[in-house]
Amino acid sequence: MEELIRIRENEKGEKVVSARELHAYLESKQDFSNWIKNRISKYGFNENEDYVRFDKIIETTGGRLIEYALTLNCAKELAMVEGNAKGKEARGYFIACEKKLKEIIEKQLFQANERHRLRYKKSIRLKEVDREINELLRERKYLIKEINHIDRTSLIFFDLFEDTEDNLYFGGFPNKKIS
């Protein structure tokens, strides 16, 4: 999309348009200062809501200009009420810009939600893995206790029969003393 009127971002991250640039694009016959003052008054625009007014120093002469940064809605309305082909074209341009901006925001929101969903899914999986590890550690601890118990029992059993040749059994029957 070709840029008809430059759209900037202010310090709050809002999209704004220079009223002076809009005035020039609309090819209004009125001088700028009267045009903007009349439009603000006639259509009830509010300062710091629909526009911001600020001074701009002219570097070459040291003079100052009063500038206006318009919100996209304000610029769109001013273009519409201008009542000429340029106004209609500018309004269409602002609508297209807003649509594109909404698409970008929706895409960014979707991507952010997707990243959040994946992080959440990973955290759930990490919790599952953590539970599995803890279960395996409990099983390991239990098995170590069982092995230690079997070892102790085996030692007691073998201590009882150690060095007693008379008590050797094979196949469940007592054997004769081996000499």
Automatic annotation (TrEMBL):
Q: At the top level of its lineage, which domain of life is listed?
A: Bacteria
Give a Pfam family name: AntA
Q: What's the source species for this entry?
A: uncultured Dysgonomonas sp
Name used for this protein in its record: AntA/AntB antirepressor domain-containing protein
Q: Give residue ranges for domain AntA/AntB antirepressor.
A: 17-82
